Amino acid sequence: MALNPEDPSGGFQHDTVMAFINEKMARHVKGPEFYLENTSLSWAEVEDKLRGILEDSELPSEAKEACAWGCLALGLRFAHKQRQLHTCRVQWLHNFCKLHKSAAQTLASNLRELTEQKEMERKEAAYHLRLTQAKLEEVQKERDLLRWKLFRAELEFAREQERVEEGPGLATVSGAGTERAGEEEDVAEAATTTATTGGAAGGGGRQKDAEGRGRI
């Protein structure tokens, strides 16, 4: 018996169908042989071998018919294998999609965390930048203030140097002016004294002349 009811890879679900096909293949010895020898071949290879058998004029019709039933059983076997492969592929694709979805969710979560982390780093960097700018402005103000103080100190120092250099000349001129003013005051005082004395003497002479005229 070519078809085994306990073989799940045969593709048949009903024992009655398998028994009928086994009966048809058993009408000639080449029927079961054709089925058992070609279970590992592809459908294209099985079909090519069946064509060769059908075109062989030396084979009896019973052998050709038995091989044809064997080819039918092999076709169902191959269809069952293809269905199993298709089911496995669908399951694999389903698992792959689930894995892809999980990976996409993980990637999205990681991307969200990375975005939040970068945003925090950006805000922190902006804060430190503003703080640095404020400190820089403060340092610049202190620098400008120190420059102004240094400029005033240099200006005061230059003025002090000028006063020190011009000091002796100014003292000499001031002393000479004081002496000249003193001399002028002495001359004026002497002139005043002389004028006073002369006036007094003139008044006495006029009084004596008047007295003399009275006596006459």
TrEMBL record:
<dbReference type="Pfam" id="PF15186">
    <property type="entry name" value="TEX13"/>
</dbReference>
<dbReference type="GO" id="GO:0003729">
    <property type="term" value="F:mRNA binding"/>
</dbReference>
<keyword id="KW-0175">Coiled coil</keyword>
<feature type="compositionally biased region" description="Basic and acidic residues">
    <location>
        <begin position="206"/>
        <end position="216"/>
    </location>
</feature>
<feature type="compositionally biased region" description="Low complexity">
    <location>
        <begin position="189"/>
        <end position="198"/>
    </location>
</feature>
<dbReference type="InterPro" id="IPR028193">
    <property type="entry name" value="TEX13A-D_N"/>
</dbReference>
<feature type="region of interest" description="Disordered">
    <location>
        <begin position="162"/>
        <end position="216"/>
    </location>
</feature>
<feature type="domain" description="Testis-expressed protein 13 A-D N-terminal">
    <location>
        <begin position="5"/>
        <end position="154"/>
    </location>
</feature>
<feature type="coiled-coil region">
    <location>
        <begin position="104"/>
        <end position="156"/>
    </location>
</feature>
<comment type="similarity">
    <text>Belongs to the TEX13 family.</text>
</comment>
<protein>
    <recommendedName>
        <fullName>Testis-expressed protein 13 A-D N-terminal domain-containing protein</fullName>
    </recommendedName>
</protein>
